[in-house]
Design goal:
Number of strands: 7
Number of domains: 1
Bound molecules: NADPH dihydro-nicotinamide-adenine-dinucleotide phosphate
Shape: globular
Order of helices and strands: EHEHEHEHEHHEHHE
CATH architecture: 3-Layer(aba) Sandwich
Distance between the termini: 39 Å
Radius of gyration: 17 Å
Largest sheet: 7 strands, parallel
Number of helices: 8
Length: 241
């Protein structure tokens, strides 16, 4: 049986991705770092779609924890395969560079880039052996154009887009696709506290996006039909860029 692993799947965009993929028949592994209650809610909603689902908690920055979790799951499920990975876990910790503390630089880069490396490496080999895989990386508009006050986040997401393009070329022959999605402002906990009324003046669509809209794009990229799309970074930003 094919499973999709969604990092940071307990809430926000990750939750919407879990539910959309579950509605399309994927079995779901929901990763989270600390918010077990939200992840449990997501699991209940996934199970109500009639597919299998499990929680797979780990911190994506902790290589050993990632390996242990993925290996443990694979040993318990010898017949099953993680055929899709959505590297969605991410954090922001904004400040102008001049005020940006080393910890905020490290945390944001590590969650996105070490997270991508740790989790992708843990699941890639079975995808290559089975000659099918879908990897979608959650980048950001910030990684394409750079946003002031987000040098750490822009660097992390820009690096993730570059890694997407490089890995796509490594694995295309094995029918594994690797793409990135670059959302603009999407209504989740991550944008709590931002002034939506002010910000939406600059968005051609004049509104923030919804997690479900991002999930629909991710669902297409992991589908069988998207097999000839790889190494792409697709914006979903209401025309902001
Ligand atoms: P949320 O803050 O709502 O959710 C973030 C998720 O990431 C949570 O599930 C959280 O887990 C998880 N997470 C954070 N750090 C780790 C870690 N070290 N290990 C495992 N999981 C972790 O954010 P969004 O849903 O808005 O963001 C999802 C992705 O989309 C991120 O990569 C973000 O950068 C990106 N994005 C978001 C945009 C937006 O406007 N919202 C715009 C562009 C990109 P837990 O619940 O356990 O805390």
């Amino acid at each position: 049986m094919r499973y999709a692993l969604v990092t940071g799947g307990g809430r926000g965009i990750g939750r919407a991705v879990c539910l959309k993929l579950a509605s399309q028949g994927w079995n779901i592994l929901i990763n989270y770092a600390s918010n077990a209650a939200k992840a449990q809610e997501t699991l209940s909603a996934v199970l109500s779609c009639g597919v299998k689902g499990e929680l797979l908690p780990f911190d994506v920055t902790d290589a050993e924890a990632v390996d242990d979790a993925v290996r443990g799951w694979q040993e318990a499920h010898p017949e099953d395969v993680i055929a899709a990975l959505v590297n969605n876990a991410g954090v922001r910790d904004d400040n102008l560079l001049i005020w940006l503390e080393p910890a905020a630089w490290q945390k944001v880069l590590s969650t996105t880039l070490d997270g991508f490396y740790n989790v992708t490496r843990a699941v890639l080999q079975p995808m290559l052996l089975s000659k099918f895989g879908r990897i979608v990386n959650m980048a950001s508009l910030s990684g394409l154009k750079g946003l002031p006050g987000q040098t750490n986040y822009s660097a992390a997401k820009g690096g993730l887009i570059a890694a997407t393009k490089a890995l796509a070329q490594e694995v295309a022959r094995k029918k594994v696709t690797v793409n990135a999605v670059a959302p603009g402002f999407i209504r989740t906990d991550m944008v709590d506290g931002l002034d939506e009324t002010e910000l939406r003046r600059n968005i051609p669509a004049a509104r923030f996006g919804e997690p479900e809209e991002v999930a629909a794009l991710v669902a297409f990229l992991v589908s069988e039909e998207a097999g000839y799309i790889t190494g792409e970074c697709i914006g979903i930003d209401g025309g902001l860029y």
